[in-house]
Write a structure and sequence with these properties.
By secondary structure, this protein is an alpha+beta fold. The protein is 31% helix and 20% strand. Helix 4 crosses helix 7.
Length: 278
């Protein structure tokens, strides 16, 4: 592919990589990462009411809160979601991720009047204030994805691609999961590496090498050597039902392999914007 066939707009897009050998040799990927980070740093956006939480996520990339919803509201939400999973008329997107099956329902495809609890949750002031604070954009029901997730653990001998440590993409972008059941090791909990969002020479060099790898696709995989050379330590987020977890998926993360047949359920709020346009 020649330089001419690559629109300059693709460099300034949210695409994971720019598929151009010359540009990659010139260092376009670390350049995009640095520029996205500089823009993120200088964009003014009020932290809102929840400064402590926003600062914590900006610094560490993750944050978790137990007993997030009042118990009565949590029970009603869980019941509503459980009933949705039983319905035959609801479209389920099934993603075979190797050793695990991720089932997803997009809440916005369903009639809102049938989902009072999910709609109430989708307007939760704390959740959306914090996610706005860390995204540095006004986030609401309208410009976010609200997804119901059901993760089913498959046979141990199959390779679960999401169980490899990785970074989703080169810029700050966030998700928030409310877990509807207790998450133990057998359910395949999230593992997150605090402070892995920090951009330093070590990380830029690895992003550069990744961009030169012609077989590279999807999200960049992270080796144990990278973690130890950056003195980073993963944290496994086993938790009780009704725990809310925020994660900047630019940071390193994966899920632990659970035991076959176990399921975990979550409501996920997810956003992803072009990091060069605010
Ligand atoms: Fe990921």
């Amino acid at each position: 592919m020649g330089l001419k066939s690559v629109s300059v707009f693709r460099i300034f897009s949210g695409d994971k990589l720019v598929r151009n050998s010359l540009l990659n040799h010139l260092g376009v990927q670390p350049f995009r990462m640095l520029l996205a980070r500089v823009i993120y740093k200088i964009i003014p956006f009020r932290k809102g009411k929840y400064i402590k939480e926003v600062d914590f996520i900006r610094e560490n990339g993750m944050y978790q809160i137990q007993n997030f919803l009042p118990q009565e509201q949590f029970n009603a939400l869980k019941e509503e979601v459980t009933n949705l999973w039983k319905r035959k008329d609801v479209k389920i997107n099934i993603r075979d991720q190797g050793g695990c099956i991720m089932n997803v329902i997009d809440v916005k495809t369903l009639p809102q009047e049938e989902l009072p609890q999910l709609i109430k949750y989708s307007k939760n002031d704390f959740l959306f204030s914090v996610i706005s604070g860390v995204e540095k954009r006004k986030i609401s029901f309208k410009n976010s994805a609200i997804l119901l997730e059901k993760l089913v653990q498959g046979p141990q001998h199959l390779h679960d691609i999401e169980a490899d440590m990785h970074s989703d993409i080169f810029f700050n972008t966030h998700k928030a999961w409310l877990y509807l059941n207790d998450v133990e090791l057998k359910h395949g909990p999230l593992q997150y590496v605090p402070k892995s969002t920090v951009v330093n020479f070590n990380r830029l060099l690895r992003e550069y090498k990744f961009s030169l790898d012609k077989t590279a696709k999807g999200s960049r995989r992270v080796s144990d050597d990278e973690l130890s050379s950056r003195k980073l330590h993963p944290e496994t987020l086993t938790c009780k039902a009704n725990t809310l977890v925020f994660g900047n998926v630019n940071g390193y993360h994966r899920r632990i392999r659970g035991l076959e047949g176990n399921e975990r359920y979550a409501v996920c709020v997810s956003v992803r914007f072009n990091p060069f346009i605010y």
